[in-house]
Amino acid sequence: MQWLLRTMCLIHVFGKVFCLLELNKNPEAHMNVSEIIEHWGYPSEEYKVVTDDGYILPINHIPHGKNNADSSAPKMVVFCLHGLFSTAGVWVSNPPDNSLAFILADAGYDVWLGNSRGSTWAKKHVTLNPDSEEFWDFSYDQMIKYDLPATINFILEKTGQEQIYYIGHSQGTLIALGAFSTNQELAEKIKLSILIAPVETVKYVQGSGRFPGYFDRTTFQGGFGKKEFLPTVAFSELSSYVCNINLLDSGCAAVLASLTGYSEGQLNKSRVDVYITHSLAGTSVQILIHYGQAIRSGVFQAYDWGSPSLNMQHYNQITPPVYNVEDMKVPTAMFTGLKDFLSNPKDVANLVPKISNLTYHKTISDFSHLDFIVGLNAREEVSEEILTLLREYDGHF
Question: Residues 11, 238: contact at Cβ < 8 Å?
Fold first, then answer.
């Protein structure tokens, strides 16, 4: 609760003074993903995929880079999925020379960027109103069961490919681990899974990310309702105006670091407004309750409905089923950091022996949770390594 109060206080203070100070003016802080892609001169397409339970998810597509539009060579598909509170915009939050999506496109890959239900541009349903509790009645279980299969199958059908490369960050890794260990048909469609700042168990989460773990389901819903988790939405919406003020860059960076961890020398403070807009947005209250349960239990399992009888109704057993990552056979590469609050090294150590086909694992001593995606050294430490991995697999298959 102290974290929430500090955040709200910062919002109030920033709102009072932002109009008096010089601005950095990053236009991408006010853009959607397609607009950012076009802003940097890349081709942009957007599609909608409908899940089996009716959620409408936008998919952003960069079909080629700036200098390979006329290439006749077949392009392998790379699908990237963001983490908790994020949007597909996280993959294009830096200029092209240090944004993974643009780097992949320029290297000749067919790049697709997913948006999980409840994130900024994924708040539509074929029948449910996003103002209703029913719309927000989901956790990451539904992303595992519905969102990822629907999106991957859509991309395969659209491209005519039989397999794709998967890149997930944070919650995007958790969704992959859950889906690829429980859905073998889906797993066979993945040539290589690259997990960046992987999340499976979250027992050792640090910083403000531990906040949901302090409350049971009833208490958390009593404080924040049963719909969207509004504090992050409010801060994200203000950040595009507040966090582009030179004097306040450090304050905004501190809010972000309290959640993700901080590595001095990696964060470009002049772009914090863009990072927060696309990396600290909306999600459901129920997902945060689910993470709170996982923090307390130290187990990667389905949402606990609060009683044996309710769990029996949902799962036909009195306890939530466990996701057995050991059942995942997909070739997997991982990038982890020692200063990561959310993908804590202790939780990573718990995950590593469960991955039976771990082909590559790089640990970066000075990286925190977002540094892999937007850090000043992200290209050298992560993106170039990913290109090497993909080229190796292109050659082997």
Answer: yes
Q: What is the pLDDT of residues 10-19, one digit of tens each?
A: 444 344 333 3
Task: Check: CB of residue 367 under 8 Å from CB of residue 227.
Answer: no
Task: Out of 106, 273, 340, 371, pick the active-site residue.
Answer: 340
Residues 126-149: what's their mean pLDDT? 98
Phi-psi region of 327 (alpha: psi -120 to 50; beta: other; left: phi over 0): alpha
H or E segment and range at residue 111: strand 110-114
What percent helix, strand, coil does the chain show, rounded to 5?
50, 15, 35
DSSP conformation class of 167: E
Pairing outcome for strands 55-62 and 124-125: antiparallel
53-79 residue pLDDT tens = 999 999 999 999 998 887 777 789 999
Candidates 34, 139, 170, 193; catalytic one: 170
Is residue 61 part of the annotated active site? The answer reads: no
Please confirm, yes or no, whether 361 is among the known catalytic residues: no
Distance separating alpha carbons of residues 251 and 82, to the nearest angstrom: 24
Residues 6+ apart with CB under 8 A from 112: 59, 60, 61, 62, 77, 78, 79, 80, 155
Is residue 284 part of the annotated active site? The answer reads no
* Report field, pTM of the whole predicted structure over 0.70: yes
Asked if residues 66 and 42 have their Cβ atoms less than 8 Å apart, the reply is yes
The pairing of strands 77-81 and 164-169 is: parallel
Between CA 201 and CA 196 the distance in angstroms is 15
At 1 the three-state DSSP class reads coil
Listed residue (224, 350, 346) closest to 287, CA to CA? 224
Active-site choice (208, 347, 369, 383):
369
pLDDT at 245: 54
Q: Using the structure block, give the residue that is written with the tokens 């499976």.
A: 200
